[in-house]
Amino acid sequence: MSDNLDIQFLMQKYIELDKPIPFKENRLLILPVLIEESFEFLQSIDVLDIDKDTHGTIEIIQMPYLSYLYNLIGESDEYSIGLKLNAILTLSIQIVGHEFERVFIKSEINEDGKCFIIFSNNDLDKPSPEDIKLNSREFDELRRIIMYQNILNFSDKYIDPDLKKAFNDYWSFKNKNISVPTLEKQIAIIQSVTGMNKTEILCMTYRCFKILFDTCVEQIDYKINKSAEMSGQVEFKKSVEHWVYKTNKSMYADAFQDVNSYKETMKSVT
Fold first, then answer.
1. What is this structure's pTM?
2. I need a surface site. Which of 32, 48, 178, 224 has the fewest CB within 10 A?
């Protein structure tokens, strides 16, 4: 992880405003993915968020992420890794000065075994002075920016593996009978709450769309729960929190006690 990447700065100056982020001495722009591009994006984004450290070997843990991907691409059963990486970078990267031309993604491994990713405005194998080459450190910064730019509530802060597994198991157990609304349904819900038309919604960035959808749901839930609370016929464990002015807390705070309860429940079952 690079210490030079100020995510908070990028959030406030670019990401929260849906603005492209200049990169590599302003020669590249990292574009936020639009909702109409989200299918291709979601089919491939896991390639940038593989937890390679869980493999347990020192060699893999110390390996740069780009080198790790190249190793996976070299395996016969992981050919899709290369396709996914190409898809994500094609969606996300624009070469400054070539806004309306396709970006060609190339790779290179030098004699020392170091890996590079190359962005070019032509598909020729011969290197061009206009090619833009990223080393492993720069690629790691790029992939982190793409994740934060598009995935709501993404965080790459270290979490104890056992705790992370407990949370994942808990949410999987809790949501196993919940049907997630399709994109079409989510769009319809936003339309019903905001009055926006479908054309307007499809022009939104994917991250902005997810924020708007969650906000619509939170607003509806608040109105229903607050009305029930004020009626006196329903008693909540704690007062219904306002849907705008929320308590500042960890994203895991609400689930922590439930995770402990879940663990005890599973112990009793087994």
1. 0.85
2. 178
